[in-house]
Amino acid sequence: MADVSPIDLQKALSGADYPADPKKLAKVARDNGAPKELTERISHLGKKKFENPAEVSKAVFGGQ
User: Which superkingdom does the taxonomy of this entry point to (predicted)?
Assistant: First the structure.
């Protein structure tokens, strides 16, 4: 994920309604033109529901 920043993730998830599952978030990201690498990473997150963008960012980037 070196090419994708937390800002890219925020832009990709713009307009997402929470709580949301990874499948829904990946669709929002695709609709917002996110790179395939990012949409695939989102769709494979293990958590069933995310309550807010911060939870998604933590899952994608870890402790960064």
Answer: Bacteria
Residue 58, in any domain of the structure: yes
Yes or no: say if 21 and 54 are a contact pair by the CB < 8 Å rule.
no
Amino acid at position 15, single letter: G
How far is the CA of 2 from the CAs of 16, 30, 38, 44, in angstroms? Answer: 24, 19, 11, 17
Task: Show the DSSP H helices in 1-64 as ranges.
Answer: 6-12, 22-31, 36-43, 53-61
Please give the tally of structural domains in the chain.
1
- Domain that includes residue 31, residue range: 19-62
Rounded-to-integer distance, Cα 44 and Cα 42, Å:
5
For residue range 7-30, list pLDDT tens digits in order: 999 999 999 999 999 999 999 999
pTM of the predicted structure, to 2 decimals: 0.87
